[in-house]
Design brief:
This protein is mainly alpha-helical and 267 residues long. Helix content is 80%, strand content 0%.
C-alpha cells in the first residue's frame, strides 16, 4: 500500500506542488486561530482569577470592618455599664441622680449599638448586662436617700444625749423591731419618727425614706447581691464576645463586695 501511494505521488507531483503553498497558508491560519483561541482562554482565566481575587479581598475587608464594628460596640457597652455600675456605689452617699440618668442613657445607647451589630445569640447575653446595671441603679435610687439620711444622724450620734443621737438610736431600735417582727415595732417606729422630727436634722422626705427603708436588709447585702448579678451577666457576655471576635482570652473581675464591706463597688 505504501508503494502504491508513492507511485501516485510521483505521477501527481506537479499538482501537489501547487497545493503546498495553500496548505502552508491554511496551516498558518489554523495555527494563528488556535494560538488566538488559547490566548483568549488564558486572558479569560486571568480575568476570572482577578475577579475572584478582588471578591475575596472585598469579602475579607467586609468581614474585618464588621469585626471592628462589633468589637467597638461590645467595648462601649462594657465600658459604659462598668462606669455606671461603679457610680451606683456613690449614690448611697451623695445625691447625684441626674448624673446617673445620663450615664444610663449612654448604657442604653451602647446596648442599642450591640443589638444592631452582633448576632442574636450575643444580644441575648447583652440584655442581662443591661438589666443588671438597671437593677443596681434602681437599688441605689431606692435605698440611697435613707442611707444618706442615716449618715447625717450617724455624724452626731457619737455625742450621747443630743437630739441627733436620740433620733439615730430610735431609728435603729425601730429597724431591729421591724426585722425581728416584735409586737412593739409600731410604737418604736412612731418613736423614731418623732425623734427624727425633733432633732431638726432631716427633712420630711428624708424621714419618710428612713422609715420606708427600715424593714429592708443591710445596704451592704443589697450591694453585694447587685454586684453578683452584674458580674455574672458581664462574665457570660464577655466570654461569648471573645469567641465571636476570635479573641477568647480569659478575663477577670477586679472585686466583688462581700457583706459588711463598706468601700464602693469596683468592677
Amino acid at each position: 500500500m505504501v508503494v502504491g501511494v508513492w507511485h501516485w505521488v510521483e505521477r501527481n507531483s506537479a499538482g501537489l506542488s501547487l497545493l503546498v503553498p495553500f496548505l502552508a497558508i491554511g496551516g498558518g491560519l489554523l495555527g494563528n486561530w488556535l494560538g488566538a483561541k488559547v490566548q483568549a482562554a488564558g486572558g479569560l482565566a486571568q480575568a476570572s482569577a482577578a475577579r475572584e481575587a478582588a471578591r475575596i479581598t472585598a469579602e475579607a475587608s467586609r468581614l474585618a470592618a464588621l469585626r471592628d464594628e462589633r468589637r467597638l460596640a461590645i467595648a462601649e457597652l462594657v465600658r459604659t455599664s462598668r462606669r455606671l455600675f461603679r457610680f451606683t456605689g456613690e449614690l448611697y452617699s451623695e445625691d447625684r441622680d441626674a448624673e446617673a440618668r445620663l450615664m444610663y442613657e449612654e448604657v442604653s445607647q451602647a446596648y442599642a449599638e450591640v443589638e444592631l451589630s452582633v448576632p442574636a445569640s450575643l444580644v441575648a447575653l447583652a440584655q442581662p448586662v443591661l438589666e443588671a446595671t438597671q437593677a443596681a441603679l434602681d437599688a441605689a435610687r431606692l435605698r440611697g436617700p435613707a442611707t444618706r439620711a442615716m449618715a447625717v444622724l450617724q455624724e452626731v450620734a457619737d455625742d450621747g444625749g443630743t437630739p441627733g443621737w436620740a433620733a439615730h438610736s430610735a431609728a435603729l431600735r425601730a429597724r431591729e423591731a421591724l426585722r425581728a417582727r416584735r409586737q412593739d415595732r409600731e410604737a418604736l417606729t412612731r418613736e423614731a419618727v418623732e425623734a427624727m422630727r425633733r432633732c431638726g436634722l432631716l427633712t420630711y422626705g428624708q424621714i419618710r425614706a428612713v422609715i420606708g427603708d427600715l424593714p429592708r436588709g443591710p445596704v451592704t447585702v443589697t450591694q453585694h447581691e447587685r454586684a453578683q448579678a452584674y458580674v455574672g451577666a458581664l462574665r457570660e457576655f464577655l466570654d461569648a464576645a471573645r469567641v465571636e471576635l476570635g479573641a477568647n482570652r480569659e478575663g477577670g473581675v477586679e472585686w466583688i463586695p462581700q457583706p459588711g464591706e463598706v468601700r464602693p463597688i469596683q468592677i
